[in-house]
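Standup notes
- DV: blocked on the single-chain target, sequence here:
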Amino acid sequence: MARVFAWHAKGHRFDSGNLHNQVRSLADFFIAMTYCAYIIYSPFLDQFYIGYSQDIDDRIFRHNNSGSKATKKSNDWKLVYTKYLVLKRKQCDGN
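- DV (later): unblocked, structure below
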């Protein structure tokens, strides 16, 4: 609003187009991150595990090589379901 009054106070006629051209798009205010939600299954334990990761290949490798407390009892985890999700987080521009 301050821009509106400053623009008008200089004796210029009000033209909302000038102000709208200066507004950033909504895409500039959000950060998009892709995650993979997944379900893995261990035949040895007969158990399922649900998780999410940005790097699914690395995560499955760590599940099968004792890189996770919850799944270290077995090393036969198989990927049975994946769903990729794009999550948006509000960006702070520091102003």
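- Follow-up: The first strand starts at residue 30 and ends at 42.
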